[in-house]
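Hi, here's the filled form for the chain we discussed.

Project: internal
Contact: R.S.
Residues: 165
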Amino acid sequence: MTPTRYVIALGSNRRGRHGSPEREIAAALAAVGGLRSASRIVRTLPLGPSKRRYANAVALIDSNEDPPALLRRLKRIERDFGRRRGQIWSSRVIDLDILLWSRGAWSSPGLTVPHTAFRQRRFVLDPLVRIAPDWRDPLTGLTVRQLAARLTRPIPEIRCAHVGP
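And the returned structure, exactly as it came back:
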């Protein structure tokens, strides 16, 4: 396969052998390779029951792998960093997800690209808009910039008329 570009998300909220969550992300970027660009690391509140804040980043990488092969490699890196499968939303040394692929959409058992939740996650879109604002979501046709704007746009107030006695 000729090289294609991916957007991957990186997250950590637990110290590992490389040190702080920020150092875990930096080490994971080096392990993934093919780096074209990376966002700065941002600290965010946890999703779900986890109590620890997350360090999050996104990166553009080039790879000769198809999406399932890249996913297998990312999961191997997670295991090498000490990630253990278990409870959803639990603390983790590293979390690596494929968000977008330059060839569009992919669907197979265990993998959907674009990532099904990336459009609703500011901790993904805010860093991504800084490194790839014009990348288009292959399903909606919207750019990353447009998707991020939708999350930050105020919701209009709806006024209801009182009906009744």
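Let me know if anything looks off before we file it.
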